[in-house]
């Protein structure tokens, strides 16, 4: 564990879908609710609600809620280029970078979660916990956009599971 990087990690997945569809999957509230979150609210730079079918822009803020969790996550869109890159805050001051590219008919999604604090709580719940969470949600992104099957658990009697 001496050389383990507690401050960041990267996950990649290939999705057989158009790059523009996957960009929308990350930047439109209605699309995020299909594979990632129960409820998504974005607000523009004047704190006015953004339509569920509108892409986010730099400086927008968000309120996110997952199935079977009561806590709302608040954050900010740092940058969104309208095509293939997005950066947002996550779990406080952590940053998540999404980079999309095309390769042999696939959209490659590269997620980098970084700026993770190194206290014991952050090591366990952000570095390790979020790495597991992103693994599942990237798999669910692929499942939803390639075949339409949403793998998320919504049954509160089956909690906790790896798919929530």
Structure write-up:
By secondary structure, the chain is α+β, with helices and mostly antiparallel strands. It has one domain: START domain (Alpha-D-Glucose-1,6-Bisphosphate, Chain A, domain 4, 2-Layer Sandwich). Helices cover 27% and strands 31% of the residues. It has helices at residues 19-27, 29-35, 120-147, and strands at residues 8-15, 39-43, 61-65, 73-80, 85-90, 94-103, 106-114. The protein has a 7-stranded antiparallel sheet. A hairpin with a 3-residue loop joins strand 5 (85-90) and strand 6 (94-103). Helix 1 (19-27) packs across helix 2. The longest helix is centred in the last third of the chain and has 28 residues, at 120-147. The radius of gyration is 15 Å and the shape is globular. The chain starts with 7 loop residues before the first strand and ends in a 17-residue tail after the last helix. The model has no long low-confidence stretch (mean pLDDT 97).
Protein traits:
single chain, 164 residues, alpha+beta, Alpha-D-Glucose-1,6-Bisphosphate, Chain A, domain 4, seven-stranded antiparallel beta sheet, 3 helices, 27% helix
Global mean pLDDT: 97
Query: Separation of termini?
Result: 28 Å
| Level-2 CATH architecture | 2-Layer Sandwich
Output the radius of gyration: 15 Å
Helix-strand topology string: EHHEEEEEEH
Choose one word for the global shape.
globular
- CATH third-tier fold name: Alpha-D-Glucose-1,6-Bisphosphate, Chain A, domain 4
Main sheet, how many strands, which sense, barrel? 7 strands, antiparallel
Assembly type: single chain
Q: Could you give the topology of this structure?
A:
Layout: E1 8-15, H1 19-27, H2 29-35, E2 39-43, E3 61-65, E4 73-80, E5 85-90, E6 94-103, E7 106-114, H3 120-147
Antiparallel strand pairs: 1-7, 2-3, 3-4, 4-5, 5-6, 6-7
């Amino acid at each position: 564990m001496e050389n383990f990087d507690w401050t960041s990690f990267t996950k990649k997945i290939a999705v057989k879908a158009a790059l523009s569809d996957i960009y929308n999957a990350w930047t439109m509230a209605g699309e995020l609710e299909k594979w990632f979150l129960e409820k998504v609210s974005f607000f523009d730079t004047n704190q006015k609600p953004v339509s569920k079918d509108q892409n986010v822009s730099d400086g927008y803020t968000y309120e996110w809620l997952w199935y079977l969790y009561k806590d709302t996550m608040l954050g900010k869109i740092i940058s969104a280029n309208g095509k293939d890159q997005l950066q947002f805050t996550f779990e406080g001051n952590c940053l998540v970078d999404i980079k999309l590219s095309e390769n042999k008919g696939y959209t490659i999604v590269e997620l980098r979660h970084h700026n993770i604090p190194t206290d014991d709580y952050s090591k366990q719940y952000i570095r390790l916990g979020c790495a597991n969470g992103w693994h599942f949600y990237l798999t669910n992104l692929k499942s939803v956009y390639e075949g339409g099957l949403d793998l998320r658990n919504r049954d509160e009697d089956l909690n906790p599971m790896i798919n929530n």
